Amino acid sequence: MSDDSCIASGDGVSLDRVLSGTVQRTGALAAGVYLLSADEPVLYLTALCGLPVMAAAPWRRVAVSTTGPLSEAVREDHLVWVGRQEDMARLYPNTAAGLPYQFALAFAPLHGVRRRGALVLVWLKDRPPSLTRRERGQILSSASRITRVLDQAPAPWSIPDQPRAVPLLRPGPDPAQAGLAAADLLQRLPLGALGFDLQGRITYLNDAAARLLGRSAESLLGTLPWQTVPWLDAPIHEDHYRTAVFSREPVAYTALRPPDHWLDIRLYPDDSGISALISANLSRQPAAAPPPRVTVDLGAAPEATGTGRIHQLIHLAAGLSQTVTVADVISMVADQILPAFGAQGMVISAADAGRLRIIGHRGYDPRNVARLDGLYLDTDITPAGRVLRSGIPAFFADPAEMARAHPQVPALSGKQAWAFLPLVVSERRVGCCVLSYDHPHPFSASDRAVLVSLAGLIAQAMDRALLYDAKHDLAHGLQQALLPVTLPVIPNLAVAARYLPAAHGIDIGGDFYDLIRLGDTTVAAVIGDVQGHNINAAALMGQVRTAVHATAGTLPGEVLARTNRVLMDLETDLFVSCLYIHIDLAERRLHLAGAGHPPPLLRSPTPSPRTIALELEPGPLLGIRLCTEADYPVTTAALPAGSLLALYTDGLVETPDTDITDSITDLAHHLTRNGDRPLDELADSLLHHAGLRHTRTDDIALLLLRSR
Length: 708
Prior knowledge:
By secondary structure, the protein is α+β, with helices and mostly antiparallel strands. It folds into 4 domains: 5-166, GAF domain (Beta-Lactamase), CATH 3.30.450; 186-280, Beta-Lactamase; 323-474, 2-Layer Sandwich (Beta-Lactamase), CATH 3.30.450.40; 487-707, PPM-type phosphatase domain (Phosphatase 2c, domain 1). 36% of the residues lie in helices and 26% in strands. It has 22 helices and 28 strands. The strands form 5 sheets. Strands 1, 2, 3, 4, 5, 6 and 7 form a 7-stranded mixed β-sheet that branches. A 6-stranded antiparallel β-sheet has the order 15-14-13-18-17-16, sandwiched between helices. A hairpin with a 2-residue loop joins strand 13 (345-352) and strand 14 (355-362). Helix 12 (307-321) runs parallel beside helix 18. The longest helix has 38 residues, at 445-482. The chain starts with a helix and ends with a strand.
């Protein structure tokens, strides 16, 4: 990325004028332009008018894949309006966690010759929460003006390293004479008076202010106060300043100037900057608490420390709390944490039997990653093993610093700076997260503190995800072993089967299906559902299948009765629904018995297809102890040539707030319309149809049979 000269050159002035005009025309508090990087799916704050660049530092980089109003506006290419903080919390809770201010926002996509980014507008909280048609038109027309500036620029626009602060242009008379009079007035006051521009720089101060702050006026003018006054470099001052900037309301608080001088500070903001009044607080006694932290390097650039980083950590913590699998955590780190900290590369390793297994990476050549995968924890090739063993993070600002300790790393990774963060939970070594940079990157004390805190959040999310994936793989493997690997080939009978786990939980359950060959022209079709979605349900499902196999070929009612007695002997607390169908292809007859299971659907062949639910007298669920000698009546039905038989579990038809009979009827209509399609296509369409009707909370088993 280049410096901001690319923004200031060419049509840069036009962008300033359009952005400043947008603020004035819409009555907004501030406006910002986010541009989409050509190298990665990340939006960068490029220009900001009406707010200090420092105040927006936590949101300078936003991944397109994140869940938030800015990303949604760019992805979906439409205007997003958030009129109240309550709406932000309801629609975008993660964004609200890191943006705890009361105001309205609009996000308009910039889409001209190509997708450019987005325009963001901010209003104070006192504006109406709804957007009128005229206001919507103003916002969209402003976005179009900015897009034209970008499209018509003589040279391609590039992303600056830091956002450009655009001044709010105000037409008016020359204020020189009035300014001299105002300066004389303020100089005579016993109160300290300061003026700040929107970037936080001191534009004016009287002698009383310099005396109270303990610095000369010459050393303060044109500087950021927390750079030249060490005790102002504390989160409380940034928090109050940020609140005044965002709310445009006066803020008053009391602060300690070490060692024992208490000062009353009052901030009065408007669209051009902030006026501050400082006076001694004579009622406060010297404090026993130690003074605030002092920044040693007073000449360093201002960092996004204090509450800005705190809000950012809250936002990232909210995102990590919603991750479930290891893949979720990897995506979260790559899509949100990398852009938030300006890193270009990432490697996450998990500790596994004394080795570091790489489970996710971005920004690296896969061949180099493969060479580093599986290194022992005591390796000296990279710092990862030592960092994980000791639990102490390591930071390398440039290749020379890295090469002194680990000469091979710069050549292997091709990066220029690294942060190695141990992932430790309750003294348990989970793994290591490496963030890397394409250019040298100094890590300040604030950067290191924030990254160490972030590593703790990633460690907890990763530990939880590794456990989830391990349980899932174990349970899924068990269930797949218990379901039939292949179905038998039956002459004159086409077959298709599907199993789909529930959308939540451990992703396994007790739904099962089976097809048992009994002879050349006879076959048994079975479908059932064990209560629950856990390993116990999957294990019992295997036992039920074994019991059905052992008695298949006898009368359907007898098969279910014997299976019920097997469950009684197992003394399980789980219930099982089941449907057993004996199919005689020679006689074209069906003999059915059910144990509390939804009825099968039978579609008659063309030219006048029709689908009906086969009515059968149900028996009790399998496994009910009061029904040890339960009776399962048998129903007989015809099976015309070319007809289609559909067996399914209730996950396919159960919908919240909908009668299951209506859902079965809807499924029958779908079979009638689509039943002539190949069975595999039909099975997929039935699952898709069920997904469109409702969000699944139960497993689905499906068995389709077509007589030829």
